[in-house]
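Students often ask why inverse folding is considered easier than folding. One informal answer: many sequences map to the same fold, so there is more than one right answer. In these notes we will look at a single instance of the problem. The structure comes first.
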């Protein structure tokens, strides 16, 4: 090792010596151009010119009317704190979306014989995406802070599957596990527990995450740290833990990170700078890990949902009816999405149907981010 660094050290010494020898003030070279005008100039007003007739954006604030910027600014008066656990509404298991059917479909969309992990899978989008994976043939490990609810939902998912697939003898294996995704020890423990129960892990969906609204200056710092811890660290810890497991097995795998359209645009009117930054981080983390693990046959993609109607967003909108109007007026499709709208997207990105897609961000937002 020592000999490896010697030439580099010698080069550095030489470079340092030549820098010392270089004169501090370089001689001025004669200019090759004959143009002596400054690079940027502002034309002066002519004496008899009417300033009102000139085309300029330099108008005083309010000159265009009271509506100025009204649809494009955040409003500091919107404050929505993430509710305490006992106030959280429960999510119902989706009915009538899975089951046997006789429509022809590509076999590459199937997740049969796979084991998938969904973080934040006890509620909301995670629960419904987990259900999509089960309907597509995968076994499932639901990971959540709220183990009791995860256990309850695991039972309901299997019961629903049974109802929709009468006569099928082999039922999917759906297990429930506790973890705080922002805590490395908790993540390591839960991964070992899942591997012990299922024998392996092939897929990951990181849906544990939350948002809340405070203006940036009064946002309590401990809450920002918690938000980044769950949304960013939690995604990172699960992805690296499962990639390590896949590499040890020398097995292919795929990961879907749940970002948000907030990682690409700034939502209005509710202020949520730390959440937006967290979701931008998730999107670029997916791209970065996709490149890092492409050689190991592990694909990493991101889904960025727009406004989705979960039990929690319904509660927020019931308490803030004005928000509903503002949000839907900004969505080209004119309505919020439902968690079921993510079922196909997540199955596609995990399955072999998307085997040449990695590092992508799939926006499921009713067109919000294209306007
Ligand atoms: N609902 C939307 O409109 C929307 C839009 C874009 C993105 N998203 C993102 O989708 C993901 C899911 O959101 P949702 O609307 O389903 O939320 P949700 O609150 O309904 O569900 C989130 C789940 O994550 C769990 N969770 C929270 N912190 C955790 C932690 N530290 N460890 C383990 N589990 C934890 C919760 O217990 C809950 O079960 C989030 O990342 C969210 O940012 C949601």
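Output (designed amino acids):
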């Amino acid at each position: 090792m020592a000999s490896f660094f010697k030439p580099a050290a010698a080069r550095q010494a030489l470079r340092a010596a030549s820098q010392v020898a270089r004169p501090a003030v370089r001689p001025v070279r004669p200019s090759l151009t004959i143009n002596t005008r400054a690079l940027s100039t502002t034309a002066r007003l002519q004496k008899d010119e009417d300033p009102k007739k000139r085309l300029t954006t330099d108008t005083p604030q309010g000159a265009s009317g009271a509506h100025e910027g009204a649809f494009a600014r955040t409003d500091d008066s919107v404050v929505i704190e993430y509710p305490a656990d006992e106030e959280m509404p429960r999510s119902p298991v989706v009915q009538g979306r899975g089951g046997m059917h006789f429509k022809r479909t590509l076999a590459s969309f199937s997740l049969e014989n796979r084991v998938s992990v969904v973080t934040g899978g006890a509620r909301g989008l995670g629960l419904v995406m987990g259900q999509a994976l089960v309907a597509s043939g995968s076994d499932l490990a639901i990971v959540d802070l709220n183990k009791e609810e995860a256990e309850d939902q695991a039972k309901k998912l299997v019961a629903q599957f049974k109802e929709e697939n009468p006569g099928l003898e082999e039922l999917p294996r759906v297990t429930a596990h506790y973890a705080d995704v922002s805590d490395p020890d908790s993540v390591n423990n839960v991964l070992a527990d899942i591997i012990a129960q299922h024998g392996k892990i092939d897929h990951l969906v990181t849906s544990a995450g939350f948002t809340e609204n405070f203006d940036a200056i009064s946002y309590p710092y401990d809450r920002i740290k918690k938000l980044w811890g769950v949304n960013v660290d939690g995604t990172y810890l699960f992805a690296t833990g499962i990639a390590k497991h896949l590499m040890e097995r020398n097995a292919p795998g795929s990961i879907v990170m749940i970002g948000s359209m907030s990682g690409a645009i700034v939502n209005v009117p509710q202020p949520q700078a730390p959440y937006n930054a967290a979701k931008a981080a998730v999107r670029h983390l997916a791209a970065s890990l996709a490149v890092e693990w492409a050689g190991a046959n592990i694909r990493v993609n991101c889904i960025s949902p727009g406004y989705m109607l979960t039990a929690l967003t319904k509660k927020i909108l019931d308490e803030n009816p004005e928000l509903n109007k503002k949000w839907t007026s900004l969505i080209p499709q004119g309505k919020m999405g439902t968690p079921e709208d993510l079922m196909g997207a997540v199955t596609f990105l995990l399955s072999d149907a998307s085997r040449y897609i990695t590092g992508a961000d799939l926006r499921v937002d009713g067109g919000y981010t294209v306007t």
